[in-house]
Specification:
The structure is a homodimer.
Chain A lengths: L2 H16 L7 H8 L3 H13 L3 E4 L5 E4 L8 H9 L29 H19 L2 H7 L2 H10 L7
Chain A binds a DNA duplex through helix 3.
Chain lengths: ~160, ~160
DNA sequence: GCGATGATACTCGGATATATAATGTCCGAGTATAAGAGG
DNA sequence: CCTCTTATACTCGGACATTATATATCCGAGTATCATCGC
């Protein structure tokens, strides 16, 4: 799995803490976590295309959450970075057998192996879909949230 | 996920059908599924190192299941090919924050994000561990099993 | 005819290339800001 | 003092390198088979 998933998760949790009053530049998030700024920007762009973040260009621009943290699941985030296709992709090698006839009726049913892997993937996605950004924000220790608010210069004046 | 997982699964199901009376060369399995012989051999080697297959060198050699299909889970197979580490690997970027002190007590608890991803991975592994090669063998249509037996020259004399 | 011996073909096993995807970097398009001139 | 204009700094967005991983290939080590030779 790409590192972008971890980066995106941490950034989104941070954005959830900061609130969406004003956007946060990718460069600033990168500085926070000591990450390469340009590549983090690329990952956040993917989240933007997926409708998880909204981006505003120009000065005082940046990224903010597109909707409430309660309505953003981990599955949304992972799918945005990793793509919608499943980890196990069946290439139908059962049909490559010499005597196999692709028109045969047995191939109308899905491959038993692919079905088994698909079942496991569904369980995985179900767990991811059951947890939201709000859950993660709440699970983290308060000290981490406070430190983030301080570092980004919020929370003192608010 | 590597293609080797799909190949290994199909090969192991086939081996389960054929029984472990005499080993099957990797080249023959590759021919069956139109796969590159040398690379399939490499994948089967990984299964051998994991204790799923036993290999016998020399003439009339090849691979056979190391234990009964009921005692080989999909998780065993996937782990053998993909490795034991989880898909999501936490790099502890929460500790890279400037003000973070690695000795701080909050870092004794696991990262909430890593914990969430870990939970999903456990659900995935649980599903994989619940299904055995025997289940897959039984789930496939009888015609596929019969065709395999014919193609490998077994079942007529037995 | 039977056993020992050597040559041979076959198979795994790991070391070595190539292709693909992940990671990392760079520069242009566009916007809000701020300064400055004019009224 | 207020408004319009202009220059500027900032940020995203996608195009372009670089590195790591997966895929594919090749050749050597070792074993069972078979033929051959000797008894």
């Amino acid at each position: 799995m790409s590192e972008g998933v971890e980066w995106g998760l941490h950034c989104c949790v941070t954005l959830a803490w900061l609130g969406d009053e004003e956007p946060v530049p990718a460069a600033r998030l990168a500085e926070r976590f000591q990450l390469p700024p340009a590549y983090l920007n690329k990952c956040l762009q993917a989240l933007g295309r997926a409708g998880i973040l909204t981006s505003t260009p120009g000065a005082r621009g940046g990224f903010r959450l597109a909707r409430a943290p309660e309505r953003i699941t981990l599955l949304d985030l992972v799918t945005a970075i990793e793509g919608p296709e499943e980890a196990f992709r069946c290439t139908e090698i059962r049909q490559r057998c010499a005597e196999a006839n692709p028109a045969s009726r047995e191939f109308l049913r899905p491959c038993a192996i692919a079905a088994a892997m698909h079942k496991a993937e569904l369980a995985w996605r179900k767990e991811l879909a059951a947890q939201t950004l709000a859950d993660l924000s709440a699970a983290a220790p308060r000290s981490a949230r406070d430190a983030a608010l301080r570092w980004f210069g919020r929370g003192e004046n608010d």
